[in-house]
Amino acid sequence: MSLRIAVTAFVVLLLGAPSAPAAVSSEAGWGCTADSSKAGWTLLATPLPSSPYSPLVKETPGVIVHWNVRVGSGLSPLVQQLGVFRAVNGGADYTKVAESALETFGGNPEAEAFATRIPVQAGDYVGLHGPVETFVCGGQGGATAALFEGGIALGETKAFKTESEFRSPVSAVVEFDADGDGYGDSSQDRCPESALFQTECPLVALEIGDVEVKRGAILIEAGNNSTASIEAIGEVRWSVRPKSNHSAERSSKGKRVRVGLRTPGTQTVEPGAPVTLRVPLPESVKKRLAQLPRRRALQARIDVKATNLVPYVGTHELKIKLPGRKQP
Predict the structure, then answer these.
(1) Where do the structural domains in the chain lie, given as residue ranges?
(2) Contact yes or no for 225/271 (Cβ under 8 A)
(3) Rounded Cα gap, residues 170 and 191, in angstroms
């Protein structure tokens, strides 16, 4: 015996989405304005103990999303390259761990900012190098910079010397990267809850098709708009009146019975390819149905739950009648 119930629904419901920190950004680098240039220098800044501002990359994980070199008036345009450096050997040496594309600066300091995407760690330094000459800020007494008189290839480690009269005019905006996918949360990643998506996070859109009650199970056709893990969980309840000749006891509501229902596990559903969830009926439910005449029924309450890859969770609640099976 089976009962087919036509149920079609389209439901979007978000539950328990991961709580990502608010997307924040910070600026790395001293941000001074260049007033001269030096042939072949690679110059990066180290923190000043007396300054509340730090040239360090402070957020982790983080992503440099754009960078700028402030150039004073009267200087000829120069090609420059941002480098990211990591201290090694107790701070005596630095390794170049990342670099930007080559860009030309000079002429319009307010407009010169270039987009990039460079994942960084907390404690990294930004530095600047020009293939011909490197812009520098002079007359910066009291500042401490790390200087290497030459270019450094990506992955190379070099010993830097201390430079107290110059700073690097490079600055970089570092955005938080909550999911660690290498994209800045504010401007580059539209789904910071998941490393799998940089476009809008896909919502959960459950579609319920036919629901069929068979002798041993409930079959539920279910689909989703994106790849998801799907399952069904619910219960059946009924009351059993006490067997007694006493009128007061016969009129009581009796014992409340609750029996859980669920699929044996989860199934993976792909977009446009619905699956059939099989919810077995426990022996106690089948026994109770065998005691009920066909004009009566139990009601099963079942939640179909889909969890996509973000992960977002969507649910659809079903109320399903289970007709009695007692033979006349």
Answers:
(1) 3-18+199-323, 25-176
(2) yes
(3) 29
Q: What is the DSSP letter of 167?
A: B
**Rounded Cα gap, residues 69 and 96, in angstroms:** 19
Decide: pTM greater than 0.85: no
Here the tokens at position 252 are 């009581």
Q: By three-state DSSP, how is residue 62 classified?
A: strand
Tokens of 311: 């992960």
Ranges under pLDDT 70 in the chain: 1-24, 48-55, 59-60, 108-112, 140-143, 243-253
Residue with tokens 């430079």: 163
188: region left, alpha or beta (phi > 0 left; psi from -120 to 50 alpha) = alpha
Residue 125 DSSP label: E
Beta bridge partners of 139: none
| Structure letter (DSSP) for residue 195 | T
DSSP, collapsed to helix, strand or coil, labels residue 171 as strand
Residue by residue, DSSP assigns 33-52 as: PB-EEEETEEEEE---TT-S
Task: State the pLDDT at residue 140.
Answer: 66
Cα distances (angstroms) measured from residue 127 to each of 141, 173, 251: 19, 13, 85
3-18+199-323 carries CATH number 2.60.40: yes
- Altogether, the residues listed in the chain come to a count of 328
